[in-house]
Structure formats: structure tokens, C-alpha cells
């Protein structure tokens, strides 16, 4: 029997190759490299020209409370799909919280959707980044699937619903403070 031993540099290289395609999720507790429903985002935010109604999403928040998007009818709703195992999600979490704090007085509500994640890890994420808007727990990814017309194809992704309940903007991948703030402010000014 021949045993092959990988050296430390070889192990580091192998880990980098495995993580490179699947992101941080390959080495943490998120979906593995074989989960082809999500792809890397392009970090581009866009206003949707042909707006479609948002689906009637409902679920349970990470703190165990029921929540429906329709609870926020008449508001701009920023729906951010995130996971604790997602490095770009950790990077954009302070941006999400800051824009939420700055825009909630103008009728903007943020709702997180924690996807394909462990509940304990997700709750620790919220505490770490001091996120105080509600986050739905979507371990199975069913909420993401409800957005068929304009899908959130990556983690993170952000969909913004206008006051009429239509999907008005989308960002696939991490979103910058300036981009998110500008889009939310623009949509909040619509009548």
C-alpha cells in the first residue's frame, strides 16, 4: 500500500482551489461546490425597467416571529439575501445596517433573508454586525425560489420592492454603500 502525504503548501493550494470556485461556502457550513443554483455575483446594481409584482413571501424570522412582506405594504422594501458563511455578506452587512438607519424614516424597511445557513451561526452574524432589522430564516432556499421573475441568483443579492409592491431594483453580489443608498433614495422619492 502506497500512502501519499500532502505537504502544507500543497494542502493550502488545494484549499484555495476548492474555495476559489465555491467561495467561502466550500470550507464553511454553507452549500458546497455542487450547489449550482447560486453563482458569483457581478456586483452590479440595476433599476428594473419592466417591474413585476413581488411574490407573497412569508416565513419566520431568526428570532421566531412570523413575517410577511405584505406587512410592509406602501413602503420601499429592501430584501437582502445573505448567509453567515458568505464573505461578501460579512463585508456588506455594515452597509446594509447603515443605509437602513439612514432611510427608515422615509418609509424604507429592510428585510434580510438568511439562506442555506445554520440558525446559531446566523444569529451570531446578526449580533456581530448589530443588524436590527428582521431576517427571515430560509435554510432550504424556498424564499429565494419564490422570486422567479427576478431571481436573486447569488449570495449576497439584494432586491428592492417599490411602494406598489413591484420589484424595482436588483443587485447581484455585494452592493456598495453609495450604490445602495442612491437606489433606495431614488425609489423612496417615487410617488
From TrEMBL:
The molecule here is called TlpA disulfide reductase family protein
In Pfam terms, one family for this protein is: AhpC-TSA
The residue ranges of the Thioredoxin domain are 48-189
Q: Which InterPro entries match?
A: AhpC/TSA (IPR000866), Thioredoxin-like_sf (IPR036249), Thioredoxin_CS (IPR017937), Thioredoxin_domain (IPR013766), Thioredoxin_ResA/DsbE_sf (IPR050553)
What Gene3D superfamilies does this protein map onto?
Glutaredoxin (3.40.30.10)
Q: What is the lineage of its organism?
A: Bacteria, Bacillati, Actinomycetota, Actinomycetes, Streptosporangiales
Q: Where does the record say this protein resides?
A: Cell envelope
| PROSITE patterns, per database record | PROKAR_LIPOPROTEIN, THIOREDOXIN_1, THIOREDOXIN_2
Organism, by scientific name, is Actinoallomurus oryzae
Which interval of the chain is the signal sequence? 1-24
List keywords of the entry alphabetically: Cytochrome c-type biogenesis, Disulfide bond, Redox-active center, Signal, Signal-anchor, Transmembrane
- Major location, coarse class? other
Record-linked PANTHER family: THIOL:DISULFIDE INTERCHANGE PROTEIN DSBE
Amino acid at each position: 500500500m502506497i500512502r501519499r502525504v500532502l505537504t502544507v503548501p500543497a494542502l493550502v493550494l488545494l484549499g484555495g482551489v476548492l474555495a476559489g470556485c465555491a467561495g467561502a461556502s466550500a470550507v464553511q457550513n454553507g452549500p458546497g461546490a455542487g450547489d449550482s443554483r447560486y453563482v458569483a455575483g457581478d456586483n452590479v446594481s440595476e433599476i428594473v425597467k419592466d417591474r413585476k409584482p413581488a411574490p407573497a413571501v412569508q416565513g419566520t424570522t431568526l428570532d421566531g416571529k412570523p413575517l410577511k412582506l405584505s406587512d410592509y405594504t406602501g413602503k420601499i422594501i429592501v430584501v437582502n439575501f445573505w448567509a453567515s458563511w458568505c464573505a461578501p455578506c460579512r463585508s456588506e452587512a455594515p452597509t446594509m445596517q447603515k443605509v437602513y438607519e439612514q432611510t427608515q424614516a422615509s418609509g424604507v424597511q429592510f428585510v434580510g433573508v438568511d439562506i442555506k445557513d445554520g440558525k446559531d451561526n446566523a444569529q451570531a452574524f446578526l449580533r456581530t454586525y448589530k443588524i436590527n432589522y428582521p431576517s427571515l430564516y430560509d435554510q432550504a432556499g424556498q424564499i429565494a425560489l419564490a422570486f422567479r421573475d427576478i431571481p436573486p441568483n447569488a449570495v449576497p443579492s439584494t432586491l428592492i420592492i417599490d411602494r406598489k409592491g413591484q420589484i424595482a431594483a436588483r443587485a447581484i453580489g455585494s452592493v456598495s454603500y453609495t450604490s445602495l443608498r442612491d437606489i433606495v433614495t431614488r425609489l423612496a422619492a417615487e410617488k
